């Protein structure tokens, strides 16, 4: 059986169980509609609904619907308009086609003719994608079950995710060269995109391309076209996508400054150690807390904070320098669903004082998570530290020096197996001999 066919069988089996749990006979999934700017005829880039692209690799296809009834071949209403303003979708092609009962439609409204008109129907999609008689109801019990299981990747999905790593790594290598050649943030981004084979519209998230102190803004959203006077640091958090599956990789590069090089090396060491600990049965929250202790040890060893790591964690000092979570599940969405809920949709709580952790589940084979520790010099958080009793333990001269570099983050995707973890990102770098 091919990897795709095995994947689809798995998706259908999950749908069978989800429908049984929620008491529905049919599952209908909209790919979504193109959305327009207010009072304008300019559409935003189209992004398909994740539950739709879980079934088949269609990512540029608005106004399509899947209709699945257990025991039957799934129906796909495939929207292919006659449009000379835009390039319409090509005729359906690929391995998936033979596994669907494909009905080509030229008008979005025609989809309804191919969908079950009665029975207990679970209809997934957004309200604005409704067709007359097909209003999305998004049953919670069904979605909770599907979301929970999306964490377990099939071999087919892992294959696509490995390819998404390689695409992004090519971009990262080109970005490093552009940084060393003295490009602007916009220029570095252009080099990244060209090497990754992407445009700004089809990367899985807005690339973070931050020079110098801009690296201290965790989701720095701009790309300046100004070349700065100095290229002290580049923090680039950029991914790629293959058939709807994302990668999300961060690298930080310096310019030879010793203190910043030591900081990068320290984060890299801890990142590799944490990635190596991804194992079935490990509570990801424990790994997050271990990350705080490790980063505290690094802050102490680098002479930035003279406190023991346990006290740094307890008093919130590590959270000043590392104010986000260790990572998150990834797949069809960069921040994949159900990182902190169980199969019934109940919240698996975050540790107290760690509001941004996006993954609280216990690791199991098939999960792919990011491992992305960082140490940052964020002026507003440092001001709080300066006003606290712990201020006396901080070497503010070192902090001031490093503030000009922004911060360090190193991020890989790691696949939890039944044995040693598979580091998808490091494998892709190694494959490209870097
Ligand atoms: N690129 C966003 C993140 O790392 O979660
Ligand atoms: Mn990232
Ligand atoms: Mn991430």
Descriptive account of the structure:
With 434 residues, the protein is α+β, with helices and mostly antiparallel strands. The protein has 2 domains: 3-149, Creatine Amidinohydrolase, Chain A, domain 1 (3-Layer(aba) Sandwich); 155-432, Creatinase/methionine aminopeptidase superfamily (Creatine Amidinohydrolase, Alpha-Beta Complex), CATH 3.90.230.10. The protein is 33% helix and 14% strand. It is built from 12 helices and 15 strands. It has helices at residues 3-22, 50-53, 140-150, 155-180, 185-196, 258-275, 284-301, 309-314, 317-321, 379-386, 396-403, 424-431, and strands at residues 26-30, 65-68, 75-79, 101-105, 121-124, 208-211, 233-238, 241-242, 245-246, 249-254, 368-371, 374-376, 407-409, 412-415, 422-423. The strands form 5 sheets. A 5-stranded mixed β-sheet has the order 4-3-2-1-5, with helices on one face. Strands 6-7-10 form a 3-stranded antiparallel β-sheet, sandwiched between helices. Helix 4 runs antiparallel to helix 5 (185-196) and helix 6 packs antiparallel against helix 7. The protein is globular and about 70 Å long. The protein starts with a helix and ends with a helix. The model has no long low-confidence stretch (mean pLDDT 97). The structure holds glycine and manganese (II) ion (2 copies). Residues 248, 327-328, 370, 372, 411 line the site of one manganese (II) ion.
Short description:
This protein has 434 residues and is an alpha+beta fold. Helices cover 33% and strands 14% of the residues. It has helices at residues 3-22, 50-53, 140-150, 155-180, 185-196, 258-275, 284-301, 309-314, 317-321, 379-386, 396-403, 424-431; strands spanning 26-30, 65-68, 75-79, 101-105, 121-124, 208-211, 233-238, 241-242, 245-246, 249-254, 368-371, 374-376, 407-409, 412-415, 422-423.
């Amino acid at each position: 059986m091919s990897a795709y066919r095995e994947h689809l069988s798995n998706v259908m089996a999950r749908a069978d169980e989800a429908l049984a749990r929620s008491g529905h006979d049919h599952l209908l999934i909209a790919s979504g509609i193109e959305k327009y700017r207010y009072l304008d005829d300019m559409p935003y880039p189209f992004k398909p609904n994740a539950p739709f692209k879980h079934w088949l690799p269609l990512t540029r296809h608005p106004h399509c619907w899947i209709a699945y009834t257990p025991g039957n071949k799934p129906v796909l209403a495939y929207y292919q308009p006659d449009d000379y303003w835009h390039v319409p979708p090509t005729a359906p092609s690929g391995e998936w086609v033979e596994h669907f009962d494909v009905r080509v439609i030229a008008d979005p409204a025609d989809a309804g003719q191919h969908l079950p008109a009665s029975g207990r129907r679970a209809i997934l999609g957004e309200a604005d994608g409704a067709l007359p008689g097909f209003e999305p109801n998004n049953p919670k019990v069904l979605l909770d079950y599907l979301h929970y299981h999306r964490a377990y990747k099939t071999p087919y999905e892992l294959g696509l995710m490995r390819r998404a790593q390689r695409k992004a790594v090519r971009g990262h290598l080109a970005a490093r060269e552009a940084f060393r050649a003295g490009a602007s943030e916009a220029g570095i981004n252009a080099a990244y995109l060209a090497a990754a084979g992407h445009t700004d519209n089809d990367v899985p998230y807005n690339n973070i391309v931050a020079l110098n102190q801009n690296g201290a803004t965790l989701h720095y959203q701009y790309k300046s076209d100004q070349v700065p006077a100095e290229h002290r640091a580049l923090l680039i958090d950029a991914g790629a996508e293959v058939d709807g599956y994302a990668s999300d990789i961060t690298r930080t590069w310096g310019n030879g400054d010793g203190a910043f090089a030591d900081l990068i090396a320290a984060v890299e060491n801890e990142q590799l150690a944490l990635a190596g600990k991804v194992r079935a049965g490990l509570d990801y929250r424990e790994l997050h807390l271990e990350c705080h202790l490790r980063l505290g040890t690094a802050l102490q060893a680098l002479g930035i904070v003279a406190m023991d790591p346990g006290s740094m964690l307890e008093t919130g000092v590590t959270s000043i320098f590392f104010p986000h979570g260790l990572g998150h599940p990834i797949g069809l969405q960069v921040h994949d669903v159900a990182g902190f809920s169980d199969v019934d949709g109940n919240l698996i709580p975050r540790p107290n004082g760690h509001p941004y952790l996006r993954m609280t589940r216990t690791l199991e084979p098939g999960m792919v998570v990011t491992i992305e520790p960082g140490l940052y010099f964020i002026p507003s958080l440092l001001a709080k530290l300066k006003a606290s009793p712990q201020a006396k333990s901080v070497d503010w001269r070192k902090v001031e020096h490093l503030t000009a570099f922004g911060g360090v983050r190193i991020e890989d995707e790691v696949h939890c197996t039944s044995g040693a973890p598979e580091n998808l990102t490091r494998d892709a770098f190694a494959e490209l001999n870097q």
